[in-house]
Amino acid sequence: MEELKKEIATKSRTMEIMERFDLHTKKVFGQNFLTEPGIVRKIADECILNENSCAIEIGPGIGALTEQLAKRAGKVMAFEIDERLKEVLPYSLVDYDNVEVRFEDFLNVDVKSVVDDIQKEYSDVMVAANLPYYITTPLLFKIFESEADINRIVVMMQKEVADRFAATPNSKDYNALSIITQYLYDVRIVLKVSRNVFEPKPNVDSSVVEFKKKKDIIPVDNQQAFFNLVKACFDQRRKTMLNNYGKYLNDKEKAKSQLAKAGIEESRRAESLTLQDFIKLYEVYANERNS
Ligand code: SAM
User: Domain 2-213 maps to which CATH number in 3.30.70.20, 1.20.1260.10, 3.10.20.740, 3.40.50.150?
Assistant: First the structure.
């Protein structure tokens, strides 16, 4: 009788695969492989997949999460930067015929066209990953700004970065990233994960975060211009809105009058403003720019 294979995420199977291919993890690619099957299964469960779903995975590594996604979804399309894994993944994922791996830097992928293609066959497209920590924010913003029809994103990242995505006004973690993200998505920290379940062990703990596309996004005339305004208001965190916004407009008097019209006291700091405050300010800004 054929021996039942252990999940890739077990320590023993991970070691067996790495030794077989003489694979040593590369720091430049942010390679910290998950070696705790219970956590990997939990992440895959949070992805809420079925046969109509396609999970896009960023960075499959040796396939620990890919395997659990493949068990639950109609298809997994994985993007991996490390070409050494070209010989490893067909071996580790030999039992799954619904996985396609593309060896590409995800930062160079045309996300919208990939998603449009997938949707010809799968009605539900989502993104799952244990992200390489060195480029968590650029990778996520690549997706956020792609305008691709992605319903949800379930990803693991450094705990401190997760806290920023989920932060609320007046907390130390609240910044432009929190506002821009929460404009587009409902953000929820799903799970905290200890650094001890990775090979090699990173210097930080992690969190799994779910981003669920909002159904009621308040439209603005130019999303990028709105994001730029938000970023400018946080330019110098300790300074007042009058200071940062005045610098952005290059006109303090204009900033004073626009802040008053938006009902925002000029002495406030950006960190105390809600998403609604920023939208109000942007509307005043856009109105005057267009008039
Ligand atoms: N998914 C595996 C796991 O959970 O064990 C590996 C996760 S590891 C933290 C990050 C993975 O992303 C590595 O396999 C790494 O080679 C890959 N990676 C790093 N930068 C990438 C990029 N720009 N595009 C695609 N994959 C990338």
Answer: 3.40.50.150
